[in-house]
UniProtKB/TrEMBL annotation:
It is found in: Cell membrane. InterPro entries: MFS, MFS_DHA3_Transporter, MFS_dom, MFS_trans_sf. This is DHA3 family tetracycline resistance protein-like MFS transporter. Residues 1-406 form the Major facilitator superfamily (MFS) profile domain. It comes from Kribbella aluminosa.
Length: 413
């Protein structure tokens, strides 16, 4: 059988990030409008949709991470995108509450197959030393894909709210087939068949991930930060749109429809994030690619807190938007720095598992923190938003507590 898996890993990773971001934006930009207007979901059902998604991520994050570590990073990604595509198609074609819940399970499980596997794959293929620069550059491709997907979703949404999700779901399945055909996997050494089916091998890989968290302060601290971020972000991410809808949107091009404005605002936020990423990479690349980037991460986390507090107190639409964009920019710039730093402190054998553990810590936080703050939001929307900011407050200090160590770093794969 002829193999076509000879694509350049770095270019493949860039194209993959752009495609994934495009298809994701295509599905997510108008999903909230679709849930309410087309599927007829009430506020309680909207919350249950989010909770179902997070529970699926929580329950399957570690097992699917083990698949990437024991069998194949590529296989894990292919399975993930097929499931994500199936979930998008289901909720688009069957606009009913139970079908949408089932779709969240499908796409949540699919996401856990991709979570960590892509970063572990590119780090294996090019080495941890080069991964820092690639993660930052890939973030820019991702933002470009998000911009294109947001614009396309807005245009397709004028035809039908479900159309962007249908195309996105089919595109996800096509992306899985393309990755299976072209994605090289030269530096990953799978566990021999005689060993990989044993429970002992699975538990040993999981234990090595726990050992990395115990022995390495960076891994341990990033796990705690991920948990705190989950506790704070779930309620904020669900409630910011509720507050935004309390403002009167100006009329532009003859419409003040929230669907139009949400598309425009998502596009503007992504463009601002892309510009910030490009400028920082141009004028402060040494900080973004530092071997111990505590200062820049603490600063970005502080901007996150500032954005939350400003948004909670904002009494004017444009101040609220500025606060949201500030937080979006901080999150966008943080992501590749955080990923590169974590990857440098984990060896290849358990890399995907540790990355999955970090994602699972975030899911635990979201499941635990979302309902209480959501209940608070029923009586005081501002109080719930402020509580999210207060929970986030320790994160800058946690970054600053970490100091460079002389411990030997893992060799590039």
């Amino acid at each position: 059988m002829v193999s076509y898996r000879s694509a350049d890993p770095t270019r493949t990773y860039y194209v993959y990030n752009a495609a994934w971001a495009f298809l994701g934006a295509l599905s997510f930009t108008l999903s909230a409008v679709y849930y309410v207007r087309h599927a007829g979901l009430n506020p309680l059902q909207m919350v249950l949709v989010g909770t179902t998604l997070e529970l699926a991520c929580f329950l399957f994050e570690i097992p699917t991470g083990l698949v990437a570590d024991l069998y194949s990073r590529r296989l894990s990604l292919v399975i993930g995108f097929v499931l994500i595509g199936a979930g998008f198609l289901l909720q688009a074609l069957v606009p009913a509450f139970l079908a949408i819940l089932a779709a969240q399970v499908l796409w949540g499980v699919g996401f856990t197959f991709t979570s960590g596997a892509d970063q572990a794959w590119i780090t294996d293929e090019i080495g941890a030393d080069r991964a820092d620069r690639v993660f930052v550059r890939a973030q820019q491709f991702e933002l470009g894909g998000t911009i294109a997907g947001t614009v396309t979703a807005g245009a397709l949404g004028l035809v039908g709210l479900s159309l962007p999700m249908v195309i996105s779901g089919a595109g996800m399945i096509l992306l899985a087939l393309v990755l299976n055909a072209v994605m090289p996997e030269r530096n990953f050494h799978r566990t021999p068949p005689a060993e990989r089916e044993t429970f002992r091998q699975v538990t040993d890989t999981f234990k090595s991930g726990l050992d990395a968290a115990r022995r390495r302060p960076v891994v341990r601290t990033l796990l705690v930060i991920s948990l705190i971020a989950g506790l704070a972000s779930e309620a904020f991410d669900r409630l910011w749109s509720v507050k935004l809808l309390t403002f009167d949107f100006p009329t532009v091009f003859g419409t003040s429809d929230p669907a139009f404005w949400f598309t425009a605002l998502a596009l503007a936020g992504t463009l601002l994030s892309l510009c910030a990423s490009l400028l920082l990479n141009r004028f402060s690349a040494e900080r973004l690619q530092a071997s111990h980037p505590t200062g820049i991460l603490a600063t970005l986390a502080a901007l996150d807190v500032l954005g939350m507090f400003l948004f909670a107190f904002a009494g004017h639409l444009w101040l609220a938007l500025a606060a949201l964009w500030l937080r979006q920019i901080a999150d966008t710039v943080t992501s590749p720095i955080h990923a590169a730093w974590l990857n440098r402190h984990v060896d290849s054998r358990s890399r995907a598992t540790v990355l999955s553990m970090v994602s699972q810590a975030n899911a635990i936080g979201q499941v635990a923190g979302g309902p209480p703050l959501g209940a608070l939001g029923r009586t005081s929307l501002r109080g719930a938003l402020l509580a999210s900011g207060l929970i986030w407050l320790p994160i800058p200090a946690l970054y600053l507590r970490l100091r460079p160590t002389r411990a030997k770093q893992p060799d590039p794969a």
